[in-house]
Amino acid sequence: MIDENKWLFNKDSFLYIVMYKIHEGLNRTQNMYFYVKRYNGRYTLLKHQNKLELVFKRYIQNDGFLYIYYHNDMINRSKLLNYCVYFAQIVIVFYLVLFLYGYLKMLEYK
């Protein structure tokens, strides 16, 4: 009997489909952390789709078991995204000030 916490990488198994769905969910979330427990009991932290893919490929080749615990952290966005938002706000404020300045100059010449 297979333990529910063991993810056996068999394409026909339901557990593989569940893991694939979680893997697909990475595209919609900014930070998803995977804690992976291997045979020897060591834990590794995966933060990224490509690293998870590498682990998938490694365990598919080895026909190994994989314990995965994950949590989703959607609140913390990446720094690059934050900088893009700040830049967009600055551009919007700049154009609003420019519009008000032009409008006041237009009223001045009437």
Commentary on this structure:
The chain crosses the membrane at residues 80-104. Keywords: Membrane, Transmembrane, Transmembrane helix. The chain is 51% helix and 20% strand. By secondary structure, the protein is α+β, with helices and mostly antiparallel strands. It folds into two domains: 1-76, no CATH class; 77-110. Strands 1-4-2-3 form a four-stranded antiparallel sheet, covered by helices on one side. Strand 2 and strand 3 (43-46) form a beta hairpin. The protein is rod-shaped.
Strand order of the largest sheet: 1-4-2-3
Approximate helicity band: 40-55%
Shape: rod-shaped
Task: Extract low-pLDDT stretches.
Answer: 1-18, 63-76
| Average pLDDT over all residues | 60
The total domain count is: 2
Topology at a glance:
Blueprint lengths: L6 E2 L5 H12 L5 E7 L5 E4 L2 H14 L2 E9 L5 H30 L2
Antiparallel strand pairs: 1-4, 2-3, 2-4
Keywords: Membrane, Transmembrane, Transmembrane helix
What is shown here, in short?
It is built from 3 helices and 4 strands. The chain is α+β, with helices and mostly antiparallel strands and 110 residues long. A 4-stranded antiparallel sheet has the order 1-4-2-3, covered by helices on one side.
